[in-house]
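Case study 2.
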Amino acid sequence: MPTAIRSISLIPSGSTAPSTNWERKSPSSAYASLTLIERFASLKAGDDGFDATFKVLKENATHHIEEEETTLFPEVRRTQMDLVALGARMAARKAALKERIAETATAH
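Prediction:
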């Protein structure tokens, strides 16, 4: 969900979008995290691989957060973007994604 929210919110901003290669790295990192999360569907605490999977997921998330805080956020702050409006767009996108997830879950 964070990748979907970020891409809809930052990429359309055109020339004021951050200049980093953030979006090129983000999908692979998001895919790795999703793969690890999916493993938890078949694992229980104490199962072989549970602790290792959790550790790698935690490290991946921690790295992602650090990268956002040290690279992406400072670049966004230096742009002329309206951060209040950006926050509103991101919140609206998150709400729409959550609604779609809930609809999909109840349909199955």
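Residues 2-7+20-81 form one domain.
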